[in-house]
Structure formats: C-alpha cells, structure tokens
C-alpha cells in the first residue's frame, strides 16, 4: 500500500522548472559536504585546550579501567553512559589524552551537520540543506558539545541518522529501511536513554504525513524492537535515579535558555532565526516524497523538549544538553523560511539560469557567515579556560609540582576532592592516601572508597605532616561535611595540626598541615 502524499503546495512544480537529477545529486553532495567540513573545522578549533572539567574527568578515568571494571561500575551507577564508556575505553586505549577524549564528539557533530544538510536537501532542495547544515554547524550550543568528552554530540548524530532512515523508510517502503531505523535508534538510546524521546517526535511526523495503517504497523514493530532491547538499561538505570537528584524543576528561565541555545545566544541572531522559523512553519515548500520538511523538523524541535519539561515538573530530569539532538529542527525550519522568502520574488524562482540559483545559495551562505561572526565571542569563550565550571588539570599539575613521593594526602570532601586524582592518576602516584580503603575500580565506584572515621583517626595519630586537597565547594559559606570520615578529617586537622602552606587554583586548594608541637 503506498504512503499517502501530503500536498500543501499551491500547484505542482512544472517539469521545466524541476531540477536535473544530476544537478540535484551534485547539490545534495555539496549540502552534505560543506557543512561537514565547516563543522569539522569549528570542532577542532581549540580542541587541544588544556585540562578537563568534572564530567570529562569521569570519561577520562574510564579509559584507565578494564571492560569488567566498567561493567561492575555501571551495574549500580552511571548505567546511562555504559555503552559510551565502553566505546571510549577503546578510543583512548592508545593514548588517554584530552584531544583524543574529545575527538569522537567532533566526529559526531561533523556527521550531524552533514545529516542536517542531507535532510534539508531531500525534503526541500539542496540549497535549503546547505543553509540548514551550515546554520547547525555555526550554532555555539552545537560547538560546545562538539568539543566535550561526553556522549551528547554522538547522540545527536544517531538521532539524525535514524530520522534520515525514517524518511527513507516512508519513501522506499522496504523492510531493510525499518530494520536500519530500529538499529540506529537502539544504538543511540544505549548511548543515552533520553534519545527515546525522539520516538514521540517521529510519531508526530507520521501523523503529519497521514500514512496508512501498514506504515504505522511497520513503525510500531520497530519501536517494539527498540523498547525490548532497552529494557535492561531502563531496569538498571531506574534504580540509579539518585544520580540526578540534584536537578531542579525547570521553569521559565530554563525554557528561555533553551530557546537561546537552539536559535542563537545573541538577541539579533535569535530574533532573525526565530523569524525565519515562523515563516518556515507557516508556509509550505515544494518537496518530493511523502513527508514534508515541516512535518519532520517541527516535531523534532518541540515534542521531546515539551515531554522532558513536562515530566520534570514531577520528577526533575531536565538538563539542556540532553536535548541537543532536537536542535537540528531549528536550522531546517529557518532554512525553509529563507527559501520561502526567496520564492516570493518571481523573477528569481522562474529563472532557469543556473547562475541565479548559485548566487542565491551563496547569498544564504553569506548570511549564515554573518550570524557566525555575530556569535564569534561565544565561540571564543567556549574554547577558553573559563568556559567550564572547573579545570581538573590545573589542580593535578599543582599537586604534581608540590607533592613528593611518600607524602601523606587527604581529600576534603570525598569524593569531590578526588576528581582530579581520578582523572589524572599519574600526578598523584606514589602518595600515601591515608584515608583510602579501596580503589574506585575495586569498589565499583567512580571514585576511591574511604575508610571509617575511627580507622582514619587511628592512622592520623602517626602522621606529622599531611597535604590536604580541598574541593572548592568546601570553602563556600554554610558548607558542612556529610560523612563521618570527612568530619573526622576536619576535626583532626583543627585539633592536631596547623596550616603551613596554601596553594589555590580554580578547581581547588592544596594545603600543607604540620602537627602541633
């Protein structure tokens, strides 16, 4: 049974004005290649910045663990990132450094930009794909996570690849396309389970296309396969919900922040992009096949964020980076709006001169370039030393410079102060960790486990000199230790030791205490 066509166009495109298949193929290749190259360039710009921040530090320390140790960890913590950690174990095996840590995210963002271009070219025309892909590539929110050693850029690429497979399945009606769709969504959801929210967006796409029951049945079969494959992950991660207990219920400020993240961080760029999106939503475009650009891009942009924001009113799970994969709908709609504006000029749309088409495409590229220039300060900030909340490398370098082999060290509080040691273990080697009970891999935890308060107090009686690594949060007003071991550390330092030296970095302090005489 054929899939029903959804026609909103005023009239069919006359044969004389349809694009030559070879010309369209060449245009599609450009729409995919140029954004990919631009995204690769922006992704590698500043990739070698020194140091990692907290979440990247977790990824980096996974490189030092074996696959059984990773499996032990994710059985009771961080299951949502289990597949990503296993992948990064192999990626970082040759050399666990910062550049290699972030390179998969660059590749994911590069692939995503090309897929945005491909969607625009297939659902509208090649220059729409070119504009959309470039606009995606120059958006700072994309650039930020293209340079971060976490899974979000890869998840965005996976969702877009599944969306391309969905469009192909709706047009070709072949079983193999639905199999590919299911496989792509399964792999992506195992990278991060929030990717399952795109299923709701794809359901809306099918509704917009008014597809027959046969297509719904094929899609539901694919969704069932994805759901069954995710049951182990959902079962395990449900018991780990305490990991996101720190998230707050989102409100207007979070919604406003998400709009600026998707459309652009500056007032002018955001207003122009949103204006084009409105035009793209309200007006139809000539298109090929059964699904429209609007029917794909609008649900992708709105449905997953609406679901996550709604769920988070009862169980806070909202974090803007979880929705990076939804951003692609904005440049697609904006490019569609720009195309619609171009079509309001009959002299341009009726011209059969290929030079006119190339000039129009080039004009759109120039406008995207202007938006990049307007957003350049944000790009530069995101690649600077202060873009992330902390810099674990700076604290590790300080420790390597000041601490000597055999020195006694305490971490206050644990595990927060242990993040630098976990990410850069070489800088903390051959030290006497007086509170250590079991290493993180042995305990199946992200960080080393510490002994009890009584045992620690007994060990400290024999220590005359101790270095203390202090997390920045311990210096904030109102902070108090939550564990008995941390309270024992602070009490012993106040009662039996006096401060001799202090060194500070953005990610913590290093203090030397000497026993009182």
Could you please describe the fold and organization of this structure?
The chain is an alpha/beta fold and 517 residues long. It is 60% helix and 7% strand. The protein contains 23 helices and seven strands. It has helices at residues 21-44, 54-62, 67-74, 82-91, 98-123, 126-138, 140-146, 152-172, 175-191, 198-209, 213-238, 252-263, 267-282, 293-311, 329-343, 346-349, 354-374, 376-382, 392-402, 419-423, 440-443, 453-460, 484-496; strands spanning 408-412, 432-433, 436-438, 449-450, 465-470, 497-505, 508-515. A five-stranded mixed sheet has the order 2-1-5-7-6. Strands 3-4 form a two-stranded antiparallel ribbon. A hairpin with a 2-residue loop joins strand 6 and strand 7 (508-515). Helix 1 (21-44) runs parallel beside helix 6 (126-138). The longest helix has 26 residues, at 98-123. The chain is elongated. The N and C termini lie far apart (90 Å). Residues 1-17 and 285-289 have low confidence and may be disordered.
What would you say about this model in short?
This protein is α/β, with parallel strands linked by helices and 517 residues long. It has 23 helices and 7 strands.
Please describe the topology of this protein:
Layout: H1 21-44, H2 54-62, H3 67-74, H4 82-91, H5 98-123, H6 126-138, H7 140-146, H8 152-172, H9 175-191, H10 198-209, H11 213-238, H12 252-263, H13 267-282, H14 293-311, H15 329-343, H16 346-349, H17 354-374, H18 376-382, H19 392-402, E1 408-412, H20 419-423, E2 432-433, E3 436-438, H21 440-443, E4 449-450, H22 453-460, E5 465-470, H23 484-496, E6 497-505, E7 508-515
Helix pairs in contact: 1-5, 1-6, 3-4, 5-6, 5-7, 5-8, 5-15, 6-15, 6-17, 8-9, 9-11, 10-14, 12-13, 13-15, 14-15, 22-23
